[in-house]
Write a structure and sequence with these properties.
Largest sheet: 2 strands, antiparallel
Order of helices and strands: HHHHHHEEHHHHHHH
Low-confidence stretches: 1-5, 297-302
Structural class: mainly alpha
Number of helices: 13
Mean pLDDT: 87
Distance between the termini: 56 Å
Helix content: over 70%
Length: 302
């Protein structure tokens, strides 16, 4: 009887819907993180803080002025992109202009972004306290076949899916998107064929940070937010880009689906308290069994 219950749980469309929503959030976050790492080899451990900032923009917009999170999402993306541009212009560009610092760019970026993460967390905690906050938006329940899903989750899934598809089309057909892919594949060769690497770097930061902020607004519609909510998203995003392949943007989507399925079904079959064990277990297994990622691509050292 227990085996039958486990099988019915695995086949539950309710769990599938939950996994898809979580995967959509993860994909948005991981694409931005993977883009920055793939193009510039920067370990942005502050990426989750962009998710948190996007969540706070949506929260305060709704709580104070009654602005829909869908409208706040536009401001969150703009704020995230602006922060990315400012960070690149004031700090990161110097890493690439110094030959001595460029030789240790990954280690230096880890320290820089760790500092950025600590500063953002504590500034937000001082400004808004460390209390968890949330708001109700489109919290009605829809029944689609045998699946019951909150309207806000369904809306968040739709927006995140459209954003991921738009990113895929941008990287495949837009000139700037193709330039980003070229830099990911071989930075020096891209510069030799006339690509303005510095301009593309700015666009990479703007897009990567903007996607994370967008994910934050969607997360805030379905869960509570706090100044320290970003770290788990950062960890999950790094696990995803290891699964999908460093610099492989399509792999980020596949990795997000895989990690979300492991978390949702693992929590349902075992216990929600095993979430961290499952995440790190997947991470270690990926490193041991397929370090180049699910799609078999790796970035050449440069």
């Amino acid at each position: 009887m227990e085996e039958v219950a486990d099988v019915s749980l695995i086949l539950s469309p309710q769990l599938l819907a939950a996994a898809l929503v979580l995967a959509a959030f993860y994909a948005l976050i991981a694409i931005g993180l993977n883009l920055v790492y793939g193009a510039m080899r920067l370990l942005n451990v502050a990426h989750g803080e962009l998710v948190m900032l996007g969540g706070y923009i949506a929260y305060w917009g709704f709580a104070r002025w009654g602005i829909s999170p869908l409208i706040s999402a536009v401001f969150a993306v703009a704020a995230g992109a602006l922060l990315g541009v400012l960070l690149y212009a004031t700090i990161i560009r110097r890493l690439f202009r110094s030959t001595r610092m460029l030789a240790r760019v990954e280690a230096n970026s880890l320290l820089v972004f760790f500092g950025v993460s600590v500063v953002i967390q504590n500034v937000m905690a001082v400004a808004f306290t460390a209390d968890q906050r949330g708001f109700s938006y489109m919290d009605g329940v829809l029944t689609i076949g045998s699946v019951r899903i909150e309207e806000n989750r369904l809306l968040a899934l739709a927006i995140a899916t459209v954003a991921c598809v738009a990113c895929a089309l941008f990287f495949r057909y837009a000139r700037s998107g193709m330039a980003m892919r070229a830099i990911i594949q071989q930075r020096e060769a891209a510069a030799l064929v006339g690509i303005d690497v510095d301009r593309i770097n700015i666009q990479v930061f703007a897009l990567g940070f903007g996607l994370a902020a967008l994910a934050g607004t969607l997360v805030s519609m379905t869960a509570q937010i706090s100044p320290f909510m970003g770290f788990p998203f950062t960890v999950s995003a790094f696990v995803i880009i290891i699964l999908g392949g460093l610099g492989n943007l399509l792999g980020s989507i596949l990795g997000a689906l895989m990690l979300a399925a492991v978390e949702v079904y693992g929590a349902a079959l075992i216990s929600p308290s095993f979430r961290s064990i499952l995440v790190y277990g997947v991470f270690i297994a990926a490193l041991l069994l397929r370090p180049q990622g699910l799609l078999g691509r790796s970035i050449a050292a440069r």
